[in-house]
Amino acid sequence: MNVDLTYLCGVLEAELAVGQTLVANLEALKKAIVAWDIERLLREIEARQPAIDELVLLETQRNEILRNLDEGARQGGLRGLIASMSGDSPERQRLAELREKNRCAFTMLHAAERNLIGLMENLLAHIHEALAPLTAAGVPLYGETGAARSVDVGAALIHSKA
User: Tens digits of per-residue pLDDT, 79-134?
Assistant: First the structure.
C-alpha cells in the first residue's frame, strides 16, 4: 500500500472513531435531557464541540489526500478512488471496508440526531401544554365600560390561575 493510501486509511479510521464518539455523546445528551440534568447536558454539549472540530479537520485531510491521488478520486471522491483500483487489490478491499463502516456510523449518527431532535420537540410540546393553563384567563375580563379587555399573560396568573 502506498503512503497516501496508508494515510487515507488512517484518516478514515480516525473519522470512524470520532463518529462513534459523537454517537455516544448523543446518547449522553438524550439521557441528560430526559433526566433534566442541566449540568450534565452542558458538559456533554461542551464535549461535543472538540469532536466536531476534529471531524472537520479529518474531512479536510481526507479531501486533500483524495485531490492528490488520481483523477478518479478527484472526480468521484472515495467511491471514485475505490472504483479506479484493481478489483483484487488489498488496498481496494480495505478502503471499501472503511468506507462502508464510516457510512454506517454516520448514518447511525444522523438517525440519532433526528431522534434527539424529535425527543426535544416532544418535550417542548408537553411543556407548552402543561403551561398553557397558566397563560389563559379562566374568566373574561371586562373594563370599566363593560367591553371585554384583551387578556395579557400577567392577568391570567393574577386571576385565579396562580
Answer: 878 877 877 888 888 999 999 999 999 999 999 999 889 988 998 898 888 888 77
> Would 152 be classed as within a structural domain?
no
Please count the structural domains in the chain: 1
User: The pTM is what?
Assistant: 0.71
Examine residue 141 and state whether it is found in any structural domain, yes or no: no
Please, which residues bridge with residue 142 across strands? 148
CB 55 within 8 A of CB 102: no
Whether 151 is covered by a domain: the verdict is: no
3-class DSSP string for 100-150: HHHHHHHHHHHHHHHHHHHHHHHHHHHHHHHHHHHHCCCCCCECCCCCECC
* Strand runs labelled E in 16-107: none
**CA–CA distance, 131 with 123 (Å, rounded to integer):** 12
Q: Is residue 79 part of a domain?
A: yes
Domain that holds residue 105: 3-132
* Integer Cα distance of 85 and 117 in angstroms: 40
